[in-house]
Amino acid sequence: MATFLLEIRTEEIPAAALPGARRQLEDLFSVQLAEAGFADLEITPLSTSRRLSVVVKNLPDRQADRSEVMTGPPSRVAVDSDGNPTPAGEGFARKVGLPFDQIGRVETEKGEYLTATVVHKGRDTSEILAEIVSTVVAALRFPKMMRWGDGTPIFVRPVHGVVALLGSEVIRCALFGVEASRSTVGHRVHSPETFELESADGYAETMIERGVVVDPAERKQRLEELAEALASEAGARVHPDPELMAEHVELVEWPGLIAGSFEERFLELPPEVVVTTLRYHQKCLILENGDNGLQDAFIGVIDRKDDPEGLIRQGNEWVIGARLADAGFFFAEDRKRTLAELVPGLDRLEFHRVLGSLADKAARVGKLAAVFANALDANVAPEQLHTAAGLAKADLLTNMVGEFPELQGIMGGHYLRLEGADDGLWTAVRDHYAPVGFEGAVPESVTGKFLGVADRLDTVAGLFAVGERPSGSKDPFGLRRAAQGAVKIVAEAGWEVDLNEMIQAAADAVADFSKDGEAAVADAVTAFVADRVRRWLTDVVKVSGDTADAVMSADWSNLPAAVARAEALERVRTSESFRILALAFKRVRNITDGQPDRGVDQELFEMAEERELFAATEEFAEHLQGLLPKRQVEEAFLAMEPIAEILERFFVEVLVMCEDERVRDNRMALLKQLGQQFMELADLSKLQVEGGEK
């Protein structure tokens, strides 16, 4: 068995592109090698900022021989009356590469046919790999691709070298005009000279000797250990930041870190300002002290083993100090005016060319937030909501947000706090952009929650109204995240509110901008938000997709109630009674769909099973009336179970579609009444159960 190595050496690859590239390399090689007949392989994708690699272990020298049974034409047309081959028989013999006297016969339902077993000799693995390499690399996709040279090559970055080895043998192939060899280079600082790899085996170890850690998992471990050590030396701890650490892993070939510091006076700025400067602008890890406060120090990533003269540290400190000094100046300048003084300027900031200014949006958001509060009988004055909506976007006109756009909303909250605004107001402004999608904490105050949901629904409804809707993977306005954020706030706040009504209110506010009409906007936004609710149930609540579908088919607009029903159904659905019930309910839905509502006439019952099902339906209805107001949802689902056997007997003994029209309609009315009771909880016909496909 041999090891195969492919290394594509390039110019600097964007960090965000590397995890996806590794997944593609593993998947594509796995598929291609399996199709070539290779099994039990160990495929390891590797990468650094300057190279994409894959190592495949346990490859044989040759592909195994493969036998194939081929069927030819019928004997009656392939052989004449004297037993000699006809042109058809001779053609089949040529096709399989055998003399005609070695061609066999096989009896089938359609008669006797010619047959032959053809042995396909296995090819050299190196020959197959040369073809697979070209196929795999051509199939790789990246967020952004580049052309270079004469414009023909297209890849994530220009390619400077290719290594393709099977054991110690060079695979004859070329990528983007670059012939494969055994030559590569080490780290640009520690080992920039070209050298030759003797074999594909031990690739990772050899590269470490040359200053390159090709395994991302090993780079991550080294970075984490080094960060902890540097933080400990500074008497601090690293603020957990998995996302930034993952980016650091992809930025370097050798995992290195440096510790630096900045003037303590900058800690007087709002902490978000310091964090934004360190993390988002310089990609530095944040250090905390024992009180969870910020330390006047940071840890930065470097692509080398050390910083012997301290120049990298000094450069980071200089840039960070300058940016924090600018932030201090902007902070002082902004505080010379109140946030309310900036509000008139929102008339000059365009939200959307059709939907108007940010002042127009603020007015809509304030009204919609008041509708929410009124629907929930919340103890929040409409005036406070209108004030919060008006102030929420005002910090877009501040110097600080102009320089640090990541701080929009947050700085408005801080400025209001320093002006002495009440907690409900300043926290509402600070938090109204949170959460982003399903990630992060929801706003702290009730006002902030109303503001956050109203702001998002107005954005979604408004942009839907003017035709700016997401399509496929494109969502330039982040409407999916906006809807997800609204769903998360409603769910975690436990609001018993009809989302359909809230969506309708948002659609009403932008109806004048829609060419398709208010109803079309409301329908489109409703379907869009409903899809986010389904994702909340499956991705966050962690129920199965068919459970979510069953619950949402009954009702999804009261989100806390839908969550409770989904969790309860997921717990009880595994019983045999529910399997029977789900199968029977599919029949109920098939029979009653499209049928008008009719009363059930007990005088028309002809069989005991009808009376039994009617009594069970009435009893279940009484259970629901007692259990649902108390939110005893699981008990309500369990109350369905006794009906399973009754309903099964009904379908065995009772002919629903009988000739007597009155009896037939009465039986359908009975089933529809039962179905309507079940639909208070879920549409069980949506459940995927054994036997349900029949």
What is the secondary structure topology, with strand pairs?
Blueprint: E1 2-10, H1 18-35, E2 42-48, E3 51-59, E4 66-74, H2 75-78, H3 87-96, E5 104-108, E6 111-120, H4 125-139, E7 146-147, E8 154-155, E9 159-166, E10 169-170, E11 174-175, E12 178-179, E13 183-185, E14 194-196, H5 203-209, H6 216-233, E15 237-238, H7 242-251, E16 256-261, H8 271-281, E17 285-288, E18 294-302, H9 311-334, E19 350-352, E20 356-357, H10 358-375, H11 382-392, H12 399-403, H13 410-419, H14 423-431, H15 446-465, H16 479-493, H17 499-509, H18 518-540, H19 545-554, H20 559-572, H21 576-592, H22 608-627, H23 633-638, H24 641-653, H25 661-678
Antiparallel strand pairs: 1-3, 1-9, 2-3, 4-6, 5-6, 7-8, 9-10, 11-12, 13-14, 15-17, 16-18, 17-18, 19-20
Helix pairs in contact: 1-4, 6-7, 8-9, 10-11, 10-15, 10-17, 11-14, 11-15, 13-14, 14-15, 15-16, 15-17, 15-18, 16-18, 17-18, 18-19, 19-20, 21-24, 21-25, 22-24, 22-25
Could you explain how this protein is built, in words?
This protein is of the alpha+beta class and 694 residues long. The chain folds into five domains: 2-62 and 124-209, Alpha-Beta Plaits (2-Layer Sandwich), CATH 3.30.70; 66-120, no CATH class; 216-334, no CATH class; 350-393 and 418-540, no CATH class; 574-686, Isoleucyl-tRNA Synthetase, Domain 1. The chain is built from 25 helices and 20 strands. Strand 7 and strand 8 (154-155) form a beta hairpin. The longest helix has 24 residues, at 311-334. The mean pLDDT is 92. Keywords: Aminoacyl-tRNA synthetase, ATP-binding, Cytoplasm, Ligase, Nucleotide-binding, Protein biosynthesis. Tetramer of two alpha and two beta subunits. It comes from Candidatus Sulfomarinibacter kjeldsenii. It is found in: Cytoplasm. Pfam families: DALR_1 (PF05746), tRNA_synt_2f (PF02092).
